[in-house]
Each structure stands twice: as C-alpha cells, then as structure tokens.
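Retro notes - structure team

What went well: the batch runner handled both jobs without manual restarts.
What didn't: labels got mixed up in the shared folder, which is why I'm recording both outputs here explicitly, each with its sequence directly above its tokens.

Job 1
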Amino acid sequence: MQTKAGLFIVFEGVEGSGKSTQSQALTQRLTDGGHDVLLTIEPGGTPTGLEVRKWVKTGQGITPLAELFLFSAARAALVETVISPALADGTNVICDRYIYSTVAYQGHGRGLDSDTIAELNEDATMGVLPDLVVLLDLPPDHGFGRKSDNELDRIESENDDFHLRVRQGYLAQAREDPDRWLVLDASASLLNLSDSVWNRVSDMLAGT
C-alpha cells in the first residue's frame, strides 16, 4: 500500500441514499476548519471517468463484465492521477463511491465472480484503501422515492431484487471490516448524519 499523508474517506450507499449531500457537507466542514480537502466522485473526477459515467448510466448493450472493466478503468485513472497525488501532498480526499460499490453492484447485484472483482480492484487502486468508509444505509425503495421514474438511469432502473442484493452486499462488507466502516441510518435528518460523520472524522484528525 502506498504511504498516505492525508485522510481518505469514502461515502457509499444505494441510489438516493444521500452520499453526495453528506460528502459535500463533510468537505465544507473540513474546509471551514482549515483543512485541505479534495472532493471527487466515481466514476468521474477525470476525463476517462466522466466518459465512463455517461456510458454505464445511459449506454445500451453493456454487459455486466464490460461494466466491471469500465468501472475499473475509470478507477485506475482516478487513483493514479488524482487520489494518490492528493494524499501524498497531505490533502484529505473524500470520494463518492469506490471499490465497495463494485463489490456491491457488480458482485452481489450482477453476480460476477468475487475473485475477479478483488483482483481488478487491487490493480486499479494500487492498494490505496480509505481510512474510513461511511455507509449511508437505506432500503432501496426509500432512496428511489426521492426520484421520479423518468430520472432513473440504466442501473437505477434495475429490478427490486437487484437493488436489495446491492444493499446486502454493502452490509456484508461492513460486517467484514467494522473498524473501517461507519454504518448510518440514512433516513435520519441531514444534520444528524452530518454530525455523526464529523464526530468520527474529528477523532481521526485528532489521532484518537
């Protein structure tokens, strides 16, 4: 694993769980506290990632395996050119989704081989793992209730069983690595969620 100077924090969750809202809230709190911080997103954050984001959300005929490789390519570009350099410079990095989404969506959701996913994740990240993973846990039907049908993209439009498997995939990962994961009930108020995240991050910044 590469040496990191800044904190690396990832937000995960099913569609509509509030990841973007909470990642932005944490970014603002860190900035207000005088900390250098970079907010990025998967897939995205690089020209490669932005193209992949368009393909996987709207493209037709993308197979599960092709989807996996597209996400891995975007991740490799993001880690090598954005995340690793920022961490090495002492910048705290907040990422909306990371390898855990691949395990949940392509592994548990699509049923792809877990060993293949693990190998691709290892290669794409160069061993760079987050210090904290915040899982905003929410039943899928609650998350989709925040969007109208015509706002749902290709992945969001999958059936209920798919999204239930994704949620269980997240919870399974959290159980396997409880020290790294902070699981929060995403139905709580935005302020309560933000405070819970900030309390954990504050302790990490203080080294406690």
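Job 2
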Amino acid sequence: MKNFLQKPNEKIFGLRNLDRDTLIFRVLPRFLLEILRKYFRLEITGAENIPRRGPVIIAPNHSGYTGFDAFLLGHIVQEEARRVPRVLTHHFWFLTETTAIPAQKMGFTEATFENGMNALKKGNAIVLFPEGEQGNFKPTSERYQLQEFKRGFVRMALESQCPIVPAIILGAEETHINLKKLKFTKFLKGSVIPLPLNIVPLPAKWRIHFLEPIYLPYKPSAVNDSELVHEIAQDIQEKMQVAIKEELSKRGNPFL
C-alpha cells in the first residue's frame, strides 16, 4: 500500500513508460479534449454517416477563431468513427518551426491541395473547412452565416472520387465572441486576424451533426470544369446553410 501511494502515476497511469513526445502531443491533448467535451456538454449526431474506411472529406462550418472546432472535430471523428483524420489547418500554424512541429505531431497538416490529395490517395479521412479563415474569423454579428466556400475540397473529391461528409457545428460561435475581422492585416503573409472579446471560452453547449455523405456523380476529368466545380461548392454550401438553420431551430438557449 505504501508503494502504491508513493508512485500513483506508475501504478495507475503507466506514465513512467511514456516518452516525452507521446505524453505532450498524444496523452495530454486527449485529456484536455475530453475536458472540453464535458465543459461544452457536447452532443454528437449522425456519426454513422462517416465511412469507416476509404478516403473521405469531412467538411464542417468554421467559427470561433481559436480553432477549438478543428481540435474537437478531429477528436470526435477518432472516437466515434475509429479513424484518425488528417486535419488540414491554417497556414499560420506552419510559418515557424515553433508552431509547425507541435502542429504536425498533433496530426495537423497545412491546408494545401497537394497535402489533401496525398492523404486521400492513402485512403485517409481528412477534415477540411471550406470557408477557410473567412469563416473562422468572421464577426459574431454574422454568426452561422456561411462565408463563400472555396472550391479546393470539391476538386479533391472529384479527383480522388471520394465522398464528402458535411458537418454542422453549433456552439463555437457563442464560445468565443469576435467583434470584428481586421482586414487591414492582410499583409501578414496573406492572413486576416480577429478582434476577440474573450479568450477564456464561454460555456456554450456544443452540438456536432454529420450529414449524409455526398457522392459526386462525375468522373475525375470534371475537375477541369471550373463552372461545374463552383456550382457543386455552392450547392453544398446551400445544403449546409439549410441544415444549420434547422439545427438552430431545435436548440434553445445555448448557455442553459
């Protein structure tokens, strides 16, 4: 008993046998994500719509400016679908080694067409936010209004012949309040930045809903039809906007 109390980590958690990187970039993030999952009282529906194997693009709405939605969605896909997704994230994470190395070790990949295609060709699931930074950094006054979708995710789906699973995330808009999107900072390596009201996340209730997979009935050569690609992206955006409106109508006060 005395030995048990003196070495709780070794006896209970087995942390002594873990290397530093595993502890910092695997164990600790999972622990923190589970805390966030409880804090946000996260509800998940439609996880059965995520294919259990083969390439797939999971395309969620983007909001909250901190990237909590990317962290939590990647965690949920791993927990619910038993897949380790490649989360394609903002290039800001990869500007310096200080941020790039931790991001890569946590499973993040810079959001480029080439990186997405490489992951899909290997049969992986990827998480890609079609709105990009414009969705993530939009002001709270425009909450749940989808910004124009970029077309890269459609081109990836056509070229790899994989399905797209749209995902609706509610709660992130209320968790972090953004007063304004500072467009004059565009000179910072092509980035815009938010003007946040709070850093500590507010306890809004989150809900993540995965829609049914979309299988595009076109051959890979359709990737060269820019008009068609644009039309598909618009159709998916409209479909997701309708779904967001429906999900919002079902929920009450996000803080209750």
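One thing worth noting from job 2: The longest strand covers residues 164-170.
We'll revisit the folder naming next retro.
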